[in-house]
From TrEMBL:
Gene3D superfamilies in UniProt: Regulator of K+ conductance, C-terminal domain
Membrane disposition: Multi-pass membrane protein
Domain RCK C-terminal: 217-301, 309-395
Top-level taxonomy: Archaea, Methanobacteriati, Methanobacteriota, Stenosarchaea group, Halobacteria
Natural source organism: Halorussus gelatinilyticus
Protein name stated in the entry: SLC13 family permease
Length: 603
């Protein structure tokens, strides 16, 4: 038991601090449990059982189904219709954002729902003269409580269902109430918390959510670049004449980026490297005043007076380029890299003008800043380059981009396949794992997805995370670690009624989820909750459900849930914003969930 607790402690520290990605930590846990088999009682077969778990396979299939819907462009079409309805009314914008993402998240992976809808919501805010910050945090929160509507709303629900079924099968006498969740078994409770959550976000939450990003008229103003963008002209005595742009940049260690070149009325953008510098060339630069003075003195350049380099200037008709915000996605290969080591400019034919990390702006020496998940880059690039960034899984482009390859003709098929999967599972004709796999196969056979896209659709880090943490639950059960924690929590029943103990499990799980992975929280807490219910003579299903709902709703930190990280940079939020807006909502959900469970299932 001591060995297992040490593994759990190490896992929690690594999950919270993330010195390595959480999926790698999960695999490390799995290996450690197998290597320490004499103490953990986890055999090699049990150690790798997570890969064969019905939860893991179901989540994998759901990723494919979600991606199939995404590739048809159905959600984007819905977004355009919403924009036409909401216009510049903030109440409508907020209500539509919460309603749409909440509904969609019940049937496609909520992480995917936020990634798809974030560009639409950002554009909605800008077109309606609303701060994006007022909509993006509600987008993330609504996706979480929308995921509680059905079994397939989140990977957490699917994992909890699998764990509950396994406990019920292993110990039917103690856990006779436990079974695999049906598709709509807890939809009633999901509706209750969704209504409570939506009401909060539309009232108190709206007041508490800050407008960190100003209403945008100009992206250069939003990123406060007025003092960092300027234009210079090459004089006839400049030592740069005759050299290529690439050579000139390579020979200087000054903090400067060439944004565009204007020559004889014609504008050139990336790739600028091969261009040979000529007398009279006008360069738009991104640099600071101190560097600019040194650059002008050393390189024979002259500052153009009374020139304002703004979004209109950079997106002029002759420039054939745009400014867009690009978010570093979770699992991006650029995390931990710098713009220099990633060779960003040459690799993507794009220039980064500024970097926003939460509320912090980085405009100087950006090339040496290590990129993190949620960082927002202000990028200038041609439409082709932006399209390539849009389809790259390393990024989320935070504005709507036209994709000519959406398979809109397949929309009825994709939606019909997802509906069939849900219906077959709900009617108990087939287990959800089988129906989801069949649906994924039909997506390919009908042309909604191409075969190679199946592998692109799966978020493999989530699959390895699930496979890695499932053996930890086995170890806790088999060594008695879960029983010991349950004994400690059950001791509170000496002075608390059972419904308060149920609420305590919600609160403990919610706090844990805000620090570590939601799936890890479920694996750790469900065996404890089931054992505690058994000792109290309470309904084990009610306790398992409290843990499941708490693990699916991590509102208080940006690292508690992937969707919170998605909106951290684009919303310009501070860490404390999540506490200010999320803590009251978390407490409200603790009460609503506990009372809802007691009313529907009893305690």
């Amino acid at each position: 038991m001591v060995v297992v607790f040490l593994v759990v402690l190490a896992a929690l520290v690594l999950f919270a601090t993330e010195p390595v990605p959480i999926d790698i930590t999960a695999i490390g846990i799995m290996v450690a449990l197998m290597v320490l088999e004499p103490w953990t009682e986890v055999s090699p077969a049990e150690g790798v059982s997570g890969f064969a778990s019905s939860a893991t396979v179901t989540v994998l299939a759901m990723f494919i189904l979600s991606y199939g819907v995404q590739r048809t462009g159905a959600v984007q079409i819905l977004g355009r219709k919403i924009a036409a309805f909401t216009k510049d009314d903030e109440n409508r914008q907020l209500g539509a954002t919460i309603g749409v993402v909440g509904s969609i998240s019940g049937f496609i992976n909520n992480t995917a729902a936020v990634a798809i809808l974030m560009p639409m919501v950002t554009d909605l805010a800008h077109e309606g003269k609303t701060s994006p910050s007022k909509l993006l945090l509600p987008l993330s929160y609504a996706s979480m409580f929308g995921g509680t509507l059905t079994l397939i709303g989140t990977s957490t629900n699917i994992l909890a269902s699998d764990l509950a079924a396994r406990l019920g099968e292993q110990n039917p006498e103690a856990f006779s109430e436990l079974h695999a969740f049906s598709m709509f078994e807890f939809t009633g409770l999901g509706i209750i918390v969704s209504v409570v959550g939506a009401a909060y976000l539309m009232t108190v939450g709206r007041w508490l959510t800050p407008a960190r990003i100003p209403v945008r008229e100009d992206l250069t103003e939003e990123f406060e670049l007025e003092e960092y963008l300027t234009e210079v002209v090459v004089t006839d005595d400049s030592p740069l004449i005759g050299r290529t742009v690439a050579d000139a940049i390579a020979d200087t260690d000054l903090d400067v980026d060439l944004v565009q070149l204007v020559r004889e009325g014609q504008t050139f953008v990336e790739p600028l490297g091969p261009k040979e510098i000529q007398v009279g060339d006008i360069f738009a630069l991104r640099t600071d005043r101190e560097t600019l003075v040194g650059l002008i003195d050393a390189e024979g350049l002259r500052l153009l007076p009374d020139v304002s380099v703004d979004e209109e200037e950079l997106e002029g008709d002759g420039a054939d380029q745009s400014l867009v915000e690009v978010v570093i996605a979770p699992r991006s290969s650029l995390v931990g890299e710098t713009l220099a080591t990633a060779n960003f400019r040459d690799r993507y034919d794009a220039t980064v003008l500024a970097l926003r990390r939460g509320p912090e702006y980085i405009r100087k020496r950006m090339d040496h800043a290590e990129l993190q998940v949620g960082d927002t880059l202000l990028v200038q690039a041609t439409p082709d380059s932006i399209s390539r960034l849009n389809v790259n899984r390393d990024f989320i482009v935070a504005q709507e981009i036209e994709r000519p390859d959406y398979r809109e003709s397949k929309i009825p098929l994709a939606i019909g396949i997802v509906a069939a999967v849900v219906t077959v599972a709900a009617l108990d004709v087939l287990p959800i794992m089988v129906s989801a796999l069949a649906g994924a196969l039909v997506m390919v056979l009908t042309g909604v997805l191409k075969p190679p896209e199946v592998y692109d659709a799966v978020e493999w880090d989530v699959i390895f995370l699930l496979a890695g943490v499932i053996p930890l639950g086995i170890a806790m059960e088999q060594t008695g670690a879960a029983d010991l924690i349950a004994d400690l929590l059950v001791a509170s029943a000496n002075f608390l009624p059972p419904i308060a103990v149920l609420g305590l499990f919600y609160v403990v799980t919610a706090i844990l989820t805000n620090i570590v992975s939601n799936n890890a929280s479920v694996v750790l807490m469900i065996p404890v909750a089931a054992e505690a219910a058994n000792q109290l003579g309470a309904d084990a299903f009610a306790f398992v459900l409290a843990v499941t709902f708490a693990a699916s709703t991590a509102f208080m930190t940006p690292v508690g849930y992937q969707t919170n990280l998605f909106v951290y940079g684009p919303g310009g939020y501070k860490f404390t914003d999540y506490v200010r807006v999320g803590a009251p909502l978390q407490l409200l959900f603790a009460v609503a969930t506990t009372l809802g469970i007691a009313a529907i299932w009893g305690v």
